[in-house]
Structures are given as C-alpha cells and as structure tokens.
Amino acid sequence: MNTLKYIGAIVATVALCSCASSASSPGDYAVFFGHDKADIDTDAAKTIRQAAESFKTGNYTSVAVIGHTDTTGPRSYNMDLSKRRADATRAELARDGVPMDKIVSTGSGETGLHVQTQDKMSEGDNRRVVIDLR
How many domains is the chain built from? Predict the structure, then answer.
C-alpha cells in the first residue's frame, strides 16, 4: 500500500508539472488542466494528437471523452467546467482527424476523483479529461 501512495504522489507531481500525459491503459490518455481552466495548452494538444493518431491507426470504433474537476468550487460549476474540458478535448480530437460522430464527450464534475481529497481541496491530478479509445 505504501508503494501505491508513493507512485500516486509521483503521478500527481508529474501531472502538475507537465499538464498532459498519456494514461497507463492501452487506448486511454489523460489531459490535465490548470485550476478553473478548460483551454488546450501545447502539452495537452500533443497528447490529444497522440490519441487521435492511435485512433486512426488502431482498431478503434469510438472515443469516450470524460471531463473531471477537483472539489474546489460549487458542484454545479464543476459539472459545467468538466463538460467544457471534455468539449474542448473533443474539438481538438476532431481537428486532429477523428470523425466528430465517433466522439462522445461527457462531464462528470467532481465525481470519479483520481486522487481522493477533502471537499474544497485543489488537486491537479483530478483536473483532467480521460480519452478512452474503444
């Protein structure tokens, strides 16, 4: 269990520094966002481009794009923010050649935290969009 906590701390640190990274499961990617942000930065665009290339060259038929937030801010605001993050990622995937009708984007707000925190706690690893190639 201590090893998992240690690995989680490393992942959280990398996420805060790099703003984008690919996820560990094949067909999954994660894009990270700044506090209260839904814009695609250079690192996020690179990760999204990698996901798009994987979709186009792999045996995938659809893409699920799920937005998340940390627990700062009101729940209703976080739900909207997570949806804006997912929609921005969806638009970038489409610009990179993934057919728009193959991409479904949803926001899950502060549910599905990657790192469990107390309410109203900022956590960079929770401010993300997961791109799931299917």
Answer: 1
